[in-house]
């Protein structure tokens, strides 16, 4: 080990622990570590000890992995479970700067098997990020590409011990070229994803708004919102080990873009609209909705008729209940009402036949189907259940603008609304008229719930009739 490497390695007053894990897949919650190597480097930059474990992963190893690594399944037969070695692994890295290539991937698995991880909290140095900061001219900072660039040979590929040795050699090359201040920044920014520039983190404001995670070629990975953009964005990179999707997403992030809003309501409305418009890869909720359905109720108790209609087909003044995204969801709600209130599936139109229904024989129907109870009593119970799911009436005579102000930063926004539809947001009230004239977009269930919830939490919000 060269003196240059030793000086850089002890910059933080710590020795190193170079870690390399081999896993059965990329899902930290489902896959497992089957091989682990740790190389301990002392404060003088000399290798103190090489540690190596094989583990019984308790899951099948993919054929491609066996082919790449040259591993035979019998090598793992009779090996210990990794949790039995958790204390020895923790002791091997305790008090040291943890180093690895694409270190976040390794830590996503190690955090799950080391119960005292929060007490360890080792400083981290990722050679992938270090290479990007030191050699920005390289087309790729992948492990194989960097080994080829520096002429680093491995006697085996895709095995923990030779790969850990290669990481150590790679670090020696990189640390000879990095400035001490750059190294210090790398150590302090351990939560930053490997492909995201440090400058983007420094620019994150503590303000409300919407954030966009972008991948290669500007691909939309994720859209989110927060009252504090900096805190929320940082939280993604602190928790990316919890599931496979978030881990994969963080590995792909190349850039973060922001849209500032005056407050929480603007962030909620804008996030909902942007997810539907962009359809980001990793957003599970707020997808583009299909036509909403509702149960239309006509007549009075005793002759009440219920029919499933598309929301846009409702006639003005027609009584209806619920907003459902599918026929299955609408039917399930009606079935739940029948179970809770002893309603008859035949009367509701969910079951065919004549006379007493089977549910009546089981005591689950009060008997509206066979004259054991008045039909009016049955219908009143149905209406009582429907009241809880009634869509709130629009409380104003026409369109309005909800005013949201960020006094600290001097930003005011007007959210233009009509009949629970968000027509748009403007920074000047004079710009609301074009939105009213266009009236683009129909009723949206997510927008309805966002507005209703916000108004309930903030009943004194400033409102301007338009």
UniProtKB/TrEMBL annotation:
InterPro entries: GIY-YIG_endonuc (IPR000305), GIY-YIG_endonuc_sf (IPR035901), GIY-YIG_UvrC_Cho (IPR047296), Ribonucl_H (IPR013520), RNaseH-like_sf (IPR012337), RNaseH_sf (IPR036397), UvrABC_protein_C (IPR050066). GO terms for molecular function: exonuclease activity; nucleic acid binding. Keywords: DNA damage, DNA excision, DNA repair, Excision nuclease, Exonuclease, Hydrolase, Nuclease, SOS response. This is Excinuclease cho. Signal peptide: none annotated. PANTHER family: EXCINUCLEASE CHO (PTHR30562:SF10), UVRC/OXIDOREDUCTASE (PTHR30562). PROSITE patterns: GIY_YIG. It comes from the Bacteria. GO terms for biological process: nucleotide-excision repair; SOS response. One of its GO terms (cellular component) is excinuclease repair complex. Residues 206-284 form the GIY-YIG domain. It comes from Pseudomonas sihuiensis.
């Amino acid at each position: 080990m060269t003196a240059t490497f030793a000086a850089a390695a002890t910059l933080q007053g710590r020795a190193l622990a170079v870690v390399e894990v081999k896993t059965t897949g990329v899902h930290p919650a489902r896959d497992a570590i089957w091989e682990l190597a740790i190389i301990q480097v002392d404060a003088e930059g000399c290798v103190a000890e090489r540690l190596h474990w094989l583990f019984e992963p308790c899951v099948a190893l993919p054929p491609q992995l066996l082919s790449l690594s040259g591993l035979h399944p019998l090598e793992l037969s009779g090996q210990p479970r990794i949790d039995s070695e958790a204390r020895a692994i923790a002791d091997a890295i305790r008090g040291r700067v943890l180093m690895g290539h694409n270190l976040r991937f390794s830590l996503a698995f190690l955090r799950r098997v080391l119960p005292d991880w929060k007490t360890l909290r080792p400083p981290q140095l990722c050679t992938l990020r270090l290479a990007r900061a030191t050699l920005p001219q390289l087309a790729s900072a992948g492990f194989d590409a960097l080994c080829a660039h520096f002429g680093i040979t491995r006697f085996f590929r895709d095995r923990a011990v030779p790969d850990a040795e290669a990481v150590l050699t790679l670090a020696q090359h990189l640390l000879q070229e990095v400035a001490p201040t750059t190294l210090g920044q790398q150590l302090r920014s351990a939560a930053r994803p490997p492909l995201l520039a440090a400058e983007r983190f420094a620019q994150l404001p503590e303000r409300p708004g919407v954030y966009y995670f972008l991948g290669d070629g500007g691909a939309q990975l994720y859209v989110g919102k927060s009252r504090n953009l900096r805190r929320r964005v940082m939280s993604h990179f602190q928790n990316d080990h919890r599931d496979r999707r978030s881990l994969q997403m963080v590995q792909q992030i190349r850039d973060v873009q922001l849209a500032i809003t005056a407050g929480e309501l603007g962030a909620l409305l804008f996030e909902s609209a942007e997810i539907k418009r962009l359809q980001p890869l990793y957003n599970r909720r707020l997808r583009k909705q299909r036509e909403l359905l509702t149960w239309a109720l006509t007549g009075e108790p005793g002759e009440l008729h219920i029919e499933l209609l598309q929301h846009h087909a409702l006639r003005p003044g027609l009584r209806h209940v619920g907003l459902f995204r599918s026929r299955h969801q609408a039917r399930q709600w009606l079935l739940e009402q029948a179970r809770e209130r002893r309603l008859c599936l035949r009367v509701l139109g969910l079951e065919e036949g004549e006379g007493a229904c089977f549910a009546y024989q089981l005591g689950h129907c009060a008997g509206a189907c066979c004259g054991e109870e008045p039909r009016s009593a049955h219908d009143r119970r149905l209406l009582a259940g429907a009241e809880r799911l009634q869509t709130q009436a629009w409380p104003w005579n026409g369109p309005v603008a909800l005013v949201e102000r960020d006094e600290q930063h001097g930003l005011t926004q007007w959210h233009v609304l009509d009949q629970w539809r968000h027509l748009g947001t403007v920074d000047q009230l004079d710009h609301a008229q074009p939105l009213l004239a266009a009236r683009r977009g129909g009723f949206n269930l997510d927008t309805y719930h966002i507005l209703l919830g916000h108004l309930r939490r903030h009943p004194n919000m400033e409102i301007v009739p338009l």
